[in-house]
């Protein structure tokens, strides 16, 4: 027999001895004198086991614990008695985290569960494995309902308790002498760690508001969502690199800005107004923003909302770390009329339809200034428009929309990014000619991109580049004849 085996045997023996001693002291009197003493002896037994459990929460064998807990739960009187007495003398304290606390969802609960689930190492015996859509790797989660954790040399014990009615709690046991560490920094650490794990796993989603006619009483039905899988990034955005860097830096500073916003006493929100002709990349930039920040998008369709109250309700149901988007703001609500813009026949028709829509400019402004500031943290608001001049100044003044971003026709700097994306080209003999033509015409990045797509049967890069030159020359001719036409009409 090896030295190790001997030691193990010795350990086992000593454990059995302790158990026998304990049991002996109880069993003997238990069956001694008469039956009337049995009740109090059972209580004594339970009391001792419960004491052991409380004094050695981590060490006691699970089977004994379960035996004890089951026995105690079947005997409410003893449980109450043991609980009260032991709570008084026990050097251990417990904190319970329930999913719902005073009728409100307890956000610490899922964070704690995520933290506990993430404590995976080779010593763990029970794991859960899963693979989410779009992921290559498998995820493993701890599947034990008990966990011993250590933080700054302090030992604590977690237990996830599932009740028959479906409610779950996470229970933390720790020595009272560690009260400061546990309630001060440890729990903060656990919740933050859990939230950051959730954050990393979170998939970016796009939410669309359901027509208010379909709403039910519950707020769950206000928005429908799907996974957001748009491939656009700032790398692939064709625009002036300096302007691009400015926007990226602004977004990143916003994300890291919690302390700064607190210091200056402003709500942690930022508004971007994207304006420019169709096909210049406004919607593409919103996708790039979402991918850069890892924020979900709430695509707000104002025309399907009945009134300002519904707008409020929708906005209050958005989560933090999100981008709330209102595309084509000039077409979404009747906010241009106040400025007396001349309307043509078609616009007048559209206005008639819009009149029915009761979301007003003041409703929207109230939201930006008031409710907007009150609803949680970290939100970005993006408006897009093709017609900056049509918008009411009140809506777009600085402070409401912090940054105005103009997306415009494709010039050479933007073209180089598209040439890299579509043809993997850094330079080419035809670039010079294209540069001059792009300066002389107004072609959108969407049209340039379309021309750079390699057509069926084409190989190499010359075909798409020459195709682009032809399209640009044609555009130049058209622009020229349009100008001549205008001149002759004068
Ligand atoms: N600046 C750009 N960089 C990269 N791709 C672009 C850019 N602008 C347009 N595109 C391409 O053109 C397509 C249309 O662009 P997008 O939908 O973003 O335009 P938009 O400005 O939102 O137009 P609209 O005003 O009509 O909504 C995109 O799918 C994208 O491939
Ligand atoms: Mg768009």
UniProtKB/TrEMBL annotation:
Belongs to the AAA ATPase family. BCS1 subfamily. The keyword Hydrolase applies. Its cofactor is Mg(2+). GO terms for molecular function: ATP binding; ATP hydrolysis activity. This is AAA+ ATPase domain-containing protein. It comes from Brassica campestris (Field mustard). Residues 268-411 form the AAA+ ATPase domain. PROSITE patterns: AAA (PS00674). The keyword Lyase does not apply. Pfam families: AAA, AAA_assoc, AAA_lid_At3g28540. The lineage of its organism: Eukaryota, Viridiplantae, Streptophyta, Embryophyta, Tracheophyta. One of its GO terms (biological process) is response to stress. Keywords: ATP-binding, Hydrolase, Magnesium, Nucleotide-binding. It catalyses: ATP + H2O = ADP + phosphate + H(+).
């Amino acid at each position: 027999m090896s030295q190790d085996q001997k030691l193990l045997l010795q350990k086992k023996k000593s454990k059995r001895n302790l158990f026998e001693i304990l049991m002996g002291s109880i069993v003997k009197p238990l069956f001694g004198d008469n039956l009337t003493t049995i009740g109090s002896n059972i209580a004594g037994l339970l009391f001792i086991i419960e004491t052991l459990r409380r004094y050695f929460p981590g060490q006691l064998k699970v089977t004994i614990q379960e035996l004890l807990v089951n026995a105690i739960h079947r005997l409410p009187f003893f449980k109450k008695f043991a609980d009260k007495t032991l709570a008084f003398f026990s050097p251990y304290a417990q904190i319970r985290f329930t999913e719902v606390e005073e009728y409100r969802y307890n956000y610490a609960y899922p964070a704690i569960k995520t933290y506990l689930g993430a404590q995976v190492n080779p010593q763990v015996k029970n794991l859960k494995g899963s693979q989410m859509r779009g992921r290559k790797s498998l995820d493993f989660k701890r599947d034990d309902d008990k966990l011993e954790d250590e933080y700054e040399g302090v030992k604590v014990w977690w237990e996830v308790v599932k009740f028959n009615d479906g409610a779950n709690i996470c229970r933390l046991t720790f020595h009272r002498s560690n009260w400061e560490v546990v309630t001060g920094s440890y729990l903060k650490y656990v919740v933050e760690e859990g939230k950051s794990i959730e954050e990393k796993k979170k998939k970016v989603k796009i939410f669309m508001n359901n027509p208010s006619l379909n709403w039910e009483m519950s707020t769950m039905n206000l928005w429908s969502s799907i996974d957001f899988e748009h491939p656009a990034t700032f790398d692939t955005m064709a625009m002036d690199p300096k302007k691009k860097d400015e926007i990226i830096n602004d977004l990143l500073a916003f994300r890291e800005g919690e302390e700064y916003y607190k210091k200056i006493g402003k709500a942690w929100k930022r508004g971007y107004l994207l304006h420019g002709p169709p096909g210049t990349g406004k919607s593409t930039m919103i996708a790039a923003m979402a991918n850069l920040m890892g924020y979900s998008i709430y695509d707000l369709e104002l025309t399907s909302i009945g009134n300002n109250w519904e707008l409020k309700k929708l906005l209050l149901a958005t989560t933090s770390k999100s981008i709330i988007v209102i595309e084509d703001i000039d077409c979404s609500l009747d906010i241009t009329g106040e400025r007396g813009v001349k309307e043509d026949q078609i616009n007048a028709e559209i206005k008639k339809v819009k009149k029915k829509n009761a979301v007003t400019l003041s409703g929207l402004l109230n939201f930006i200034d008031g409710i907007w500031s009150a609803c949680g943290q970290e939100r970005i608001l993006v408006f897009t428009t093709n017609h900056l001049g049509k918008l009411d100044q009140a809506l777009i003044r600085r402070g409401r929309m912090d940054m105005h971003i103009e997306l415009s026709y494709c010039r050479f700097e933007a073209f180089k990014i598209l040439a890299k994306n579509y043809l993997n080209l850094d330079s080419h003999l035809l670039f010079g000619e294209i540069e001059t033509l792009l300066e002389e015409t107004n072609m959108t990045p969407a049209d340039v991109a379309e021309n750079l797509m390699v057509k069926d049967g084409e190989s190499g890069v010359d075909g798409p580049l020459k195709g682009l030159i032809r399209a640009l020359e044609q555009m130049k001719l058209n622009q020229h004849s349009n100008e001549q036409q205008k001149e002759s009409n004068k």
